[in-house]
Design brief:
With 163 residues, this protein is an alpha/beta fold. It is 44% helix and 21% strand.
Length: 163
């Protein structure tokens, strides 16, 4: 995470998060880094459908695809980017070791991460099968996968801008 924060500082860019499954763990891991206040604009924990919608996710996305979908993750990452005018918006949604009585669709132990890049209007996504016994370890896995996703995005964006 240090590398990501340093990259954002060097490039004077910002990031915001909208999390469901990880309950703010990603935002916490960002703010654990010294100097992150220069680049981290906002973190929202939207466990309920109601607050995903209030933050900008269209109800039709939730009803058509469910909150446990890549489509919802993408809507969340775009919504948080627009809400905060950040350069990057990150979302996490999915099921970690729990059943959800309000959202019965979606596979158990499947998490969707979406990273929206405002300047290129592109999404970078990852679907993660969480397999650890504890929610804490699964959240740590999702954070590691986000770090990898961000690095992959930087390489692809660099390639796009040099063409």
């Amino acid at each position: 995470m240090d590398e990501i924060i340093n990259y954002l500082k060097e490039n004077e860019e910002t990031i915001s998060t909208m999390e469901s499954a990880t309950g703010g763990a990603l935002a916490s891991s960002i703010t654990n880094i010294s100097g992150s206040s220069q680049v981290f604009k906002f973190g929202a924990v939207t466990y309920s459908n109601e607050y995903k919608i209030k933050m900008g996710v269209l109800p039709s996305i939730i009803s058509k695809y469910s909150v446990y979908s890549l489509e919802c993750a993408r809507a969340m990452s775009l919504a948080i980017t627009n809400y905060t005018t950040s350069n990057y918006g990150v979302s996490v949604t999915g099921k970690i070791n729990d059943k959800d009585p309000y959202n019965k669709y979606g596979l158990d132990n499947e998490v969707f991460v979406s990273l929206y890049v405002k300047k290129s209007d592109r999404y970078y996504d990852k679907v993660i099968k969480v397999k650890n016994q504890t929610r804490k370890l699964n959240k740590e896995l999702v954070i590691e996968e986000f770090i990898n996703l961000f690095k992959e995005m930087l390489e692809k964006e660099k390639g796009l801008s040099s063409n």
